[in-house]
Design a protein that fits this description.
The chain is an alpha+beta fold and about 140 residues long. It is built from four helices and six strands, in the order ββαββααββα. The protein has a domain at about 35-105: DNA Binding (I), subunit A (Orthogonal Bundle), CATH 1.10.30. Helix content is about 15%, strand content about 15%. The longest helix has 7 residues, at about 35-40. The protein is elongated and about 75 Å long.
Length: about 140
């Protein structure tokens, strides 16, 4: 029974869905800063420092026709991003960026809707993918 101050209703045993809106299954990872940093292992792609003050850098700057895509965007520490500025890696001030190889950037693969990079879930470990998102009562 469902009660309100003035009326009491019987609780239905079955609820019928009058209209269903199909949501398409997306087999891609959202393009955002969190997933770019996760793809690059929270490591600057220019100096290989981990962790602190990471930003997102366009390898080919947007002002020079570079696009905001998985291939053109990498994680960079603030220091390297400021030093590189509006230049291509081979035009940098010290030439240090040209000597370093930027790892091949690509769109991360998905498994259970979470980006894992090259790592894949096994059937045995698949429950760990959703366990962090599950609401356990």
């Amino acid at each position: 029974m469902v009660r309100s101050p003035s009326v009491t209703f019987a609780l239905p045993a079955v609820i019928r869905l009058a209209m269903y809106i199909r949501k398409p299954f997306l087999d891609r990872v959202a393009f955002n800063k969190k997933n770019i940093l996760r793809r690059d292992g929270y490591t600057c792609q220019y100096c290989n420092r981990r962790g602190e003050r990471l930003t997102v850098d366009h390898v080919v700057p947007r002002s020079r026709g570079g696009e905001t895509t998985w291939i053109n965007v990498v994680a960079a520490c603030l220091r390297c991003n400021l030093r590189k500025g509006n230049r291509l890696p081979d035009e940098s001030v010290c030439g240090s960026f040209a000597s370093r190889s930027i790892r091949s950037s690509s769109s991360p693969r998905t498994c259970c809707g979470h980006p894992h990079g090259a790592r894949r879930c096994s059937i045995r470990g698949a429950s760990t993918c959703w366990r962090s998102d599950a609401i356990l009562t």
